[in-house]
Amino acid sequence: MSMQIIEAVPNFSEGRRVEVVDAIAAAIQTPGVHLLHRTSDWDHNRSVLTVAGEPEAVLVGLWQAVAVAAQQIDLRQQRGVHPRLGATDVVPLVPIAGISLDECVVLARRLGQRIGDELGLPVYFYEAAATRPDRRNLAAVRAGEYERLVEEIHLPRRQPDCGPTQVGPAGAVIVGARPFLIAFNVFLKTGDVAVAQQIARAVRESSGGLPAVKALGLLVDGQAQVSMNLVDFQVTPPHRVVEAIAAQASAVGVAIDRSELIGLLPQAALLSAAAHALHLPELGSEQVVEMAIRRAMDAGNPEPL
Amino acid sequence: MSMQIIEAVPNFSEGRRVEVVDAIAAAIQTPGVHLLHRTSDWDHNRSVLTVAGEPEAVLVGLWQAVAVAAQQIDLRQQRGVHPRLGATDVVPLVPIAGISLDECVVLARRLGQRIGDELGLPVYFYEAAATRPDRRNLAAVRAGEYERLVEEIHLPRRQPDCGPTQVGPAGAVIVGARPFLIAFNVFLKTGDVAVAQQIARAVRESSGGLPAVKALGLLVDGQAQVSMNLVDFQVTPPHRVVEAIAAQASAVGVAIDRSELIGLLPQAALLSAAAHALHLPELGSEQVVEMAIRRAMDAGNPEPL
């Protein structure tokens, strides 16, 4: 793919009224924006849309979706078990192809500015788009949720990055940029959760393991599972995590049963896993038939696809 | 990719006159046909073009290329170390996406019929498109080359499948269909060619190894190499061959150094290698971000890309 592609995973604080989520999903699908996945949860009272496309189209779709959500969702009424700061709660932009994380930060800032200026909503930037270190972490930005923000927005530490210093019924929007996150679980051939917990400690960054790996040991349907978020697969790709888990498990006489991928895997992670299995460190997408054909087609077609 | 894609790898008996190969390459690139690779060899006096696209477009391009080659190449003069039966010597069609080998056989037969009828060239079908068991093998069809065919074409066993029972200066064309072939070599951490030869015997089908694997042990730049053709990667994918070689090598105290891919790898082989490394047996292209985006784009765009 020679064009620029970003993904956005906006979270909306509505998981019960299907017609509202339909309206948001319709608004986001402006030409060039492709809805890849949609999920709503009643208890969380929250919906997550996964969209992708060329950056300018995705920004237009997101802006329209934020506008509809602000009209339709009233945080004074909304209740759910998931914490939230606004009708559109979080909008992460994720680089997929032909674009860097830094370029996504620029896009996030532009989107936030437009939401603040034209929709009159307070906006906070987080993760790679954060303007202050204490706003990098999403949970910190959302601390106290909508209700506390109403009381505290006039405090200097809660000054929005864009938009009015004033909270309406639609609350605030948290906009940011982050690398692609791979949610990846490995089931072990044991029912002993202690083994999974021990391996999780060994492989996760927070206890001295692999960088950009978050891991927990769980018991799922009676089977031990190492449940992970790989927050930067360029730093630690999934095949390296599998290798580390296999070695740790083998040391205590346990084998890997199978893995589970929640959501999607970027093509680069696929290529690096195959390269590892085949001892072909240089394997690139130009050596894959369908990808080479696609590139030839794109090159021969000056229209945006 | 939701559309049908085939690859064709026509071999032309001209590797010296660049202007002739240029004319053939220009003729083949009709709209929708993408030239992926081109190689010419002076000693072989032969050129190989790799093209891909939607089936109908590829058939038009091939027919035009065969017409140009028949006009420009005179087998009565042509000499080279590579055996050949005609100006366009061999035309294999290869299923890539959304199409079966059997459907490629139908396409090969249609192409051969049109070459016979409209260009007046004798045509033989080989491999999956063969009409008789003794024509499946390319070397058997080409035995004695152009010169003997001129003398023998009137014999019943050499009756062409299409076209006249008569050989002109452009010779005959061999048209067929076959699965994608992966040319894959594994270098060992040893300079002892006997180890590579022993492993080649263990893994190749002809001596009781893995099905659809051809293998030779070679010494390349002082390093032992298992050189392979994987003639049906759906039967034996490359990661399974690597695993078998690693086990064989390990048994004699040798390790794999690295592999080498000659040409391209189909996406399905990439997916299965990654699935193996990640313990994700069900991994499909719909779980790869860029592929999911591409599918969404194709679905939203009724124009052929």
Brief account:
Two copies of one chain form a homodimer. By secondary structure, the first copy, chain A, is of the alpha+beta class.
The largest interface is:
A-B, 51 and 50 residues
Oligomerization? homodimer
Provide the number of structural domains of chain A. Answer: 2
Q: What is the highest CATH level, the class of the largest domain in chain A?
A: Alpha Beta
- Mean pLDDT rating of chain A: 94
> What is the terminal separation of chain A in angstroms?
10 Å
| Amount of beta strand of chain A | 15-25%
Spans of chain A with pLDDT under 50 lasting ≥5 residues? 301-305
The tally of beta strands of chain A, per DSSP, is 11
Radius of gyration of chain A: 21 Å
- What characterizes the major β-sheet of chain A? 7 strands, mixed
In the CATH classification, which architecture of the largest domain in chain A applies? 2-Layer Sandwich
The ordered H/E elements of chain A are EEHEEHEHEHHEEHEEHEHH
CATH topology of the largest domain in chain A: Formiminotransferase-cyclodeaminase, Chain B, domain 1
**Relative helix content of chain A:** 25-40%
Count of helical segments of chain A? 9
Q: Superfamily at the CATH H level of the largest domain in chain A?
A: Formiminotransferase, N-terminal subdomain
The general outline of chain A is globular
- Structural class computed from helices and strand pairing of chain A: alpha+beta
